[in-house]
Every structure is written in C-alpha cells, then in structure tokens.
Amino acid sequence: MKNLQNFLLDQDYYIDIFNNCLHVYYYETLTTLTDKLIELKLKEFILTIEGKDLTVSAMDNHEILIKGEITTLRFNR
Amino acid sequence: MNHYKQVRIKTPKKSAILLKLNKLNVSIKNITYTKDYLVFDILASDIKRVQKYLVSVKLEIISDTGIYKVAKNLRGHLLILIGVIFSIVIFLVLTNIIVEVNVIHSNSKIRNLLIDALAERGVTPLTFKKSYAEYEAIIADLKNTYKDEIEWLEIDVDGMVINVRVEERIQKEFETEYNNCHIVASKSGIIKSILTEKGIAEVKTNDYVAKDEILISGEIKLIDVIKNNVCAKGKVYAYV
C-alpha cells in the first residue's frame, strides 16, 4: 500500500473518486467554480466536473477536495 | 504543526471568493457554506495575505483550531487549571505519604527495635510509602537481621498508617539429656544438704566427700545389681 502511494505521489497528477467526493492531486488552477460545474486545469488537460451541489471542501496550491453529487467527469485535452 | 484558524467571510459570491483564494495559493480546509457566510480553516500565516488581497470582504477570525484552540481555552482558565493540577498533586502526595508507623506487639523492646530498624530502612512518618516489592524486601531483611528476635513479621499498609505485626521468637533453653550420668563433687568438703530428684544419693548430710566422689548415682541398683540407668539430678550443698 505504501509502495502504491509512493507510485501515485511520483506522478504528474492523480484523481480519486469516493462517496460523492473527488480528490485531485497536482492540479494547476481552479478555473471555474459553481455548484453545478467545476473546472480544474491540470498539466495535460482540463478536468470538467459536472453534478449537483458541488462544493470545494478543502484546497491548497496543489490539492483539492470536491464534494457533491458528481454526474459527469470530462477530460478535455 | 500547521497553525490553522477558523475564519468566516460574509459574501453572497462564495465561489468567487474561493476562486480568488485559489489564485492566492492559500491552504484552506473544512470549507462550509452557510446562508451568509463562507466558513473555513486557514493557515494563520496566510491570513494577512488574504486580508491584503480581499479588500472588498471582511475576514473574521472565529477561533483557533486543534491544539491551539485547546491551548487558548486552557490559558483562559489558567487559575482553574492550576487549581486542578495542585489538587491532583496534593491528593497524590497525601495518598502516598506515611503519617504513622505502628508496631503491634506487647514487648516495648521489640517495638523500639523494629521502629528503629524500619527508620533505618526509610519507613518513618512523613515519608513516602514504598511499593509492595520494597516492603517484601524490608521484611526479608528484618527477618534475616533479627532472626533471634523475630519469628514472623508482616507490614500492613492501611491508608496513611503502616501497621507492623510481629511475633517474637521465644528461645527455650533445653538441658542436655543424658541416659546415664552421676553428680560428682567438684571439690572436697562436708555435705550440709542433699536433695535428690533422680538417681540414688550416695552420701548423707555431714559426710566428708573428696573431689570427684559420686554424690548422686545414676545407677539404680537392687541388691547390688544395676536395674536401670538414669541421669542423676538433684541439689547438693557442702562446706568446702
């Protein structure tokens, strides 16, 4: 498990989805933020998250936790 | 450890504020959305930077978080805290101190002997109690040191009082029992009195006896025949 964690932390980014939560590691900027749409710019693409009652629960300069009913995840390269 | 403070910002545009905070690269967590406020925890070191850039909104500090919140609350109740700590210390001291050492025995010599011996081993009033193992070691040491005086010893801790129960060793002097012995004169002299308890008196009052002469014989004879042998016992007084 520790090795897997180290492997993920060595990558350019990684995304976890669990229980109406989305955790994005190594994002660059938060470009859009509404309760229905959130857009995050990552190194290679823009991640579009659509859903209901979307909120940012925690964030710092390279990590963000989004909560809400996620219906769509889109990768725009 | 990062020092986070819980703050709130009164704004209807919560998303816009979060986007601005994201651009400032500040670390925030536990974000909650209320009707009028955006409430979150922010690093204390970032607060000034946020206040500087978000001039259109007012950032209110609600409280510290985590250990800092606990520390602040404790500082607010410093006197109560000192009182509680002092009470605990007093309680611990009082429950672990000896106020009296009782040696339970009728013989004052034994009592004084044990009180002195216990004092030498650190069991005196106004000292701290010892552990069970230490008391066991003291008991073993006392039994070994005073093996002629002490038969049995027990140390009973009753609250702040130490009760020492002791049984004195009573030494009986046993006379050597011989199967066959005579009482002989250690010196020459004239017998003044003779009292025979065991054996046959060989001399009478006013008899002259020489040194090493048998006074009371252990041989029980019947018509010059030895029928039994006993250890002669009696008291003989003589002028020498």
Number of strands of chain B: 17
Strand content of chain B: 35-45%
Largest sheet of chain B: 4 strands, antiparallel
Q: Report how far apart the termini of chain B are.
A: 105 Å
The portion of residues assigned to helices of chain A is 10-25%
Cα Rg of chain B: 47 Å
Count of DSSP H/I helices of chain B? 6
Mean pLDDT figure of chain B: 88
The poorly predicted ranges of chain B are none
Low-confidence stretches of chain A: none
Read across the widest sheet of chain A, the strand sequence of neighbours is 1-2-6-5-4-3
Give the ordered list of helices and strands of chain B. Answer: EHEEHEHHEEHEHEEEEEEEEEE
Helix/strand/pairing class of chain B, anyone? alpha+beta
The average pLDDT value of chain A, as a whole number, equals 89
Q: Please estimate the helix content of chain B.
A: 25-40%
Describe it for me?
The complex is a heterodimer of chains A (77) and B (240). Chain A is built from one helix and six strands, in the order αββββββ. Chain A is globular. With 77 residues, chain A is mostly beta strands. Chain A has one helix at 2-9; strands spanning 14-18, 21-25, 29-33, 37-41, 46-59, 63-76. Helix content of chain A is 10%, strand content 62%. Chain A has a six-stranded antiparallel sheet, with no helix packed on it. Chain B has six helices and 17 strands. The interface between A and B is medium-sized, with 12 and 15 residues.
Q: What would a concise description of this structure say?
A:
With about 80 residues, chain A is mainly beta. Helices cover about 10% and strands about 60% of the residues of chain A.
